């Protein structure tokens, strides 16, 4: 029997609720969509994994440990689907791990992150256009950010979203597109604002940067504001993009 597996490859979080409300929900979806495969989740932040073990005694697999186990269990096909947003440094680390195991399986493939190319960004912009339709509101898409050349993905996202609607604003919480660049346009043009976190989990950035800084600032300035979703995966249609990326590498 040909043993086949899908690995959902996540960064990880110190917020324990996230593992049930976000990661496991996605794993359940993948198990329904890919019923002929064994589906597993891995977590790749060594810093977070060590803290979870030390603080809570929780042991989780990273990608390399998972691939090593699958080799021993004689899997023949392994498909990896990251939940990352862009093909940045963390995604490149997955490619490095994969390279060590490229000769251990008959098939070993990895899917693209959420914004793997311009078509993905256009697809997200279309989803946003259908979801956020009130022209009287400012919609602020808040992403993590990236250093170096990878910030271009957020630049392309900002461009595509702005084409769809003038009241779409894109910022990054670190590196690239600071909130200050759109602050004046929001304060001068809108009485209501919604923040849509482009973050897979509601961890440190969600609480410290989005809620305590941006949301508080807007409210202090008299803008009626709220955070629309706690996780990017709560946005309708987003989980299905990850599913479609995985089907793509299986069917190639």
Largest β sheet strand count, sense and barrel closure: 4 strands, parallel
Biggest sheet, spatial arrangement of strands: 2-1-3-4
The structure class reads alpha/beta
Shape: globular
Assembly state: single chain
Q: Are there runs of 5+ residues with pLDDT below 50, and where?
A: none
Strand content: 15-25%
Average pLDDT value?
94
Count of DSSP helices? 9
Task: State the helicity in percent bands.
Answer: 40-55%
How many strands appear in the DSSP assignment? 8
Order of helices and strands: EHEHHEHEHEHEHEHEH
Plain-language structure description:
With 252 residues, the protein is of the alpha/beta class. The protein has helices spanning 16-33, 46-56, 63-72, 89-100, 118-131, 152-164, 180-189, 204-220, 238-251; strands spanning 4-10, 38-43, 77-82, 107-110, 137-143, 168-172, 192-198, 224-227. The chain contains 9 helices and 8 strands. α1 (16-33) links the parallel β1 (4-10) and β2 (38-43). α5 (118-131) packs parallel to α6 (152-164). The longest helix is centred in the N-terminal third of the chain and has 18 residues, at 16-33. It is globular.
């Amino acid at each position: 029997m040909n043993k086949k597996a899908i690995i959902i490859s996540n960064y990880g979080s110190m917020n324990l609720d996230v593992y049930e409300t976000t990661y496991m929900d996605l794993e359940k979806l993948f198990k329904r969509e890919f019923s002929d495969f064994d589906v597993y989740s891995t977590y790749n932040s060594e810093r977070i994994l060590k803290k979870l073990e030390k603080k809570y005694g929780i042991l989780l697999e990273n990608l390399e440990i998972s691939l090593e186990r699958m080799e021993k269990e004689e899997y023949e096909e392994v498909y990896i689907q990251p939940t990352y947003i862009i093909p940045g440094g963390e995604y490149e680390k997955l490619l490095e791990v994969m390279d060590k195991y490229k000769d251990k399986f008959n098939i070993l493939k990895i899917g693209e992150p959420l914004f793997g190319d311009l078509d993905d960004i256009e697809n997200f912009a279309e989803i946003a256009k259908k979801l956020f339709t009130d022209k009287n509101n400012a919609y602020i898409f808040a992403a993590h950010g990236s250093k170096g050349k990878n910030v271009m993905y957020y630049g392309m996202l900002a461009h595509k979203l702005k084409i769809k609607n003038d009241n779409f604003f894109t910022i990054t919480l670190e590196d690239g597109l600071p909130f200050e660049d759109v602050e004046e346009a929001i304060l001068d043009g809108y009485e209501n604002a919604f923040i849509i976190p482009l973050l897979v989990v509601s961890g440190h950035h969600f609480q410290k940067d989005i809620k305590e800084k941006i949301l508080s600032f807007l409210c202090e300035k008299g803008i009626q504001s709220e955070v629309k979703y706690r996780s990017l995966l709560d946005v309708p249609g987003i989980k299905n993009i990850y599913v479609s990326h995985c089907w793509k590498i299986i069917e190639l």
